[in-house]
Write a structure and sequence with these properties.
The chain is of the alpha/beta class. The chain is 33% helix and 23% strand. It is built from ten helices and ten strands. The protein is globular, with a radius of gyration of 19 Å. It binds adenosine-5'-diphosphate and magnesium ion. The site of adenosine-5'-diphosphate (ADP) has 11 residues, from strand 2 and helix 1.
């Protein structure tokens, strides 16, 4: 499968995401859990950077901070060219510029709204009247490979793969410059995952958004990312070009992650 994304960087562009010495704790006192420990990285404009690591390593916490759903405790955060201080709410223009596509599109679609109503809400948050945006909605449904009459149907009428297509349409319909995708194919069968990853790579070529793509699976990340960062226990331990990380990882943790992928050179069913 050739879904490698195109490089849309221009010299002089400032990065779409800058994270510097970011920390985040949950809880207080002796029960406090330091989930992000001085995390730093950038995502350049038009590039796609993968974030991999085992469950509980802090990937979703980073995703939610970058999208304004969680606040950090300290550190620098710049999203789409705007600095956001720890504890500050995202200004409206930054909220518009960044989209979060979640791991579980079923729970994130309101079961009582038609798909058309959910999509119009994504375009214009105070409205659930599809009429005004009908043309845009139909175009996006077709763009993600679904029939135009999906607009009048409800979330439960779609399969897991179709719902993930709907979630992608909802995430992109406002034309964000930054997309954060958190484990968006993890719940799907391998053949459906491949289709969704190809769609995402195609949409990136067409719309040039920057992407932070999170997965616990290194082989999934290679299909849509220029570079990969590896996270362990709240810290980024390695970063490199996708092919380099997959063929010549230097950190022992990355080597262990790779060895857990069926079909990879170091794969073994026994520890
Ligand atoms: N809202 C929350 N309240 C308390 N602890 C949380 C919350 N969200 C995440 N955590 C904890 O933070 C750690 C990292 O979680 P998460 O970022 O979801 O990891 P990942 O996405 O890599 O699986 C885990 O120990 C998790 O229990
Ligand atoms: Mg997660």
């Amino acid at each position: 499968m050739s879904t490698q994304a195109t490089d849309h960087r221009n010299p002089g562009d400032s990065p779409s995401i800058i994270v510097e010495d970011l920390t985040k704790k949950f809880g207080h006192g002796i029960l406090a859990n330091l989930v992000l420990d001085s995390v730093s990285f950038t995502v350049d404009q038009g590039t796609s950077v993968g974030l991999v690591g085992e469950s509980g390593s802090g990937k979703s916490t980073i995703a939610k901070i970058v999208c304004g759903m969680y606040k950090s405790d300290s550190g620098r955060l710049t999203v789409a060219g705007t600095d956001i201080a720890p504890g500050q709410r995202f200004p409206a223009e930054v909220q518009k510029a960044v989209s979060f596509i979640s791991q579980n599109p079923f729970s994130s679609f309101n079961p009582r709204l038609t798909i058309g109503q959910s999509l119009v809400e994504a375009i214009s948050p105070l409205s659930t009247q599809p009429g005004r945006h009908r043309q845009t909605i139909v175009e996006w449904l077709e763009r993600v490979g679904l029939p135009a009459d999906s607009a009048g149907r409800y979330p439960h009428e779609f399969s897991g793969g179709q719902r993930q297509r709907l979630a992608i349409a909802r995430g992109l319909i406002r034309r964000p410059s930054v997309v954060v995708a958190d484990e968006i194919t993890s719940a799907l069968d391998m053949s459906v995952q491949v289709q969704i990853l190809s769609l995402l790579a195609e949409l990136r070529r067409e719309y040039s958004f920057s992407m932070l793509f999170i997965s616990h699976n290194l082989s999934v990340v290679r299909n849509v990312c220029d570079e990969v960062m590896v996270m362990q226990s709240g810290a980024i331990v390695e970063r490199g070009a996708s092919e380099q990380i997959l063929t010549a990882p230097t950190h022992p943790y990355t080597q262990r992650l790779l060895a857990s992928i069926p079909g990879s050179p170091g794969f073994s069913l026994v520890d």
